[in-house]
Amino acid sequence: MRAKVNLAEKFSLFDELWSPKVIAQMNHVQFKLVKIQGEFTWHSHEDTDEVFMVISGDMVIEFRDKTVELSAGEMFVIPKGVEHKPYAETQCQVMIIEPEGVVNTGDAGGALTAENDVWI
Amino acid sequence: MRAKVNLAEKFSLFDELWSPKVIAQMNHVQFKLVKIQGEFTWHSHEDTDEVFMVISGDMVIEFRDKTVELSAGEMFVIPKGVEHKPYAETQCQVMIIEPEGVVNTGDAGGALTAENDVWI
């Protein structure tokens, strides 16, 4: 049995942006913390839904046909296969929940692709 | 695509204790809110891990060999098959994350068994 996880403590362990860190796993689902600021890449995940839960700050998820604004205490489920682009004007702390193996840039790849399955 | 979910708003919609309400689903994983106070039943879930994430207040998860105290901003993964008993001295707001179909009292049943798959 792993130890309990304190989100603020885990966020204090890294500064990189757009680089999700795994903090827990339930069955094959991973819980990842990420700090974001600025614009990410348009991408989608063909095989899975993805959850964004904002822990502190504000962010925007752009879709091709709408924009969703999220603040601390709010969450959103991005359906599989749907193109999206996360954005945050100032730094925002987010928990991402998705199956293990999911790469942050999905089908798009590129410079913002982070190493996967990095635990802290 | 479902609307975004505001946790505080969803918590304001119900008062019952020990009665998880589904607020979101990612693939076959459900996100449930529950208000707890007092002692729950010893039970386990034979087929799945289960995540407790404390949103406000404090709670305790008793295991046969140890006790884990959780406060707001902390989470814990209960491994499948492991007996546990949640407890909260004063009301505590919790998010439970687990596959759809999981019953709150697991293998134990009894009076605290809540209706499953109730969305708010």
UniProtKB/TrEMBL annotation, chains A, B:
The domain of life is: Bacteria
Q: Which Pfam families match?
A: Cupin_2
Q: Which organism is it from?
A: Thalassomonas viridans
Listed SUPFAM superfamilies:
RmlC-like cupins
Name assigned to this protein: Cupin domain-containing protein
Q: Which residues form the Cupin type-2 domain?
A: 37-94
Concerning InterPro entries, the annotation shows: Cupin_2, PKS_Associated_Protein, RmlC-like_jellyroll, RmlC_Cupin_sf
